Every structure is written in C-alpha cells, then in structure tokens.
Amino acid sequence: MTTTSGSAKWQGGIKDGKGAISTKSGALNDYPYGFASRFEGKPGSNPEELIGAAHAACFTMALSLILGEAKLTAEQMETKPT
C-alpha cells in the first residue's frame, strides 16, 4: 500500500481567517474552508464533511471486499448518512 497524506493551511483569526485543504494525490488542491463554510452553510468544505466522506469511502470499500470474498460483485454501491 502506498503512503498518502492530506494537509491544511490556515491564515488569520477563527471568524475572519481562511484555510485551504490539499491532498498528496492532487484530488484537492488548496480547496477553501473556513468558519463560514463550517458553521454558517457558506460554500466550501469543512473537516466534518471530509471525515464523513473518508469514513463512507472506507466502509464501502470494505463491503466490496466482503462481497468479493463471497464471490459476489455489486453493480454499484453508495454510502450516505441518514
């Protein structure tokens, strides 16, 4: 398994500051986040959204593995919060 990573930058105070999220793969490159996107519903990402997506991706891949061990392959799977 290859090693990958993500990083975050932050400039300024908590309410007036701004941040950027990047991933080693380049899937996210200085994608903006900040107080407004986290707490006020403004455009941009937030840490909770990213953690949720990561958990959903991990769960869905694990389910695919389990199905594969049973000689089954899902046509499509989608994991969403309820």
Count of separate DSSP helical elements: 2
Strand elements, count: 3
* Strand order within the widest beta sheet: 1-2-3
Ranges where pLDDT stays below 50 over 5 or more residues in a row are none
The proportion of residues forming helix, as a percent range, comes to: 25-40%
| Global Rg | 16 Å
Order of secondary-structure elements: EEEHH
The major β-sheet equals:
3 strands, antiparallel
**Average pLDDT figure:** 93
Percent of residues in β-strands: 15-25%
- What class do helices, strands and sheet pairing give? alpha+beta
Globally, the shape reads: elongated
End-to-end distance, in Å? 31 Å
Tell me what the structure shows.
The mean pLDDT is 93. The longest helix has 23 residues, at 47-69. This protein is α+β, with helices and mostly antiparallel strands and 82 residues long. A hairpin with a 7-residue loop joins β2 and β3. The chain is elongated. It has a three-stranded antiparallel sheet with strand order 1-2-3. The protein has helices at 35-39, 47-69; strands at 6-11, 18-23, 31-33.
Question: What is the strand and helix layout of this fold?
Answer:
Blueprint (H helix, E strand, L loop, with lengths): L5 E6 L6 E6 L7 E3 L1 H5 L7 H23 L13
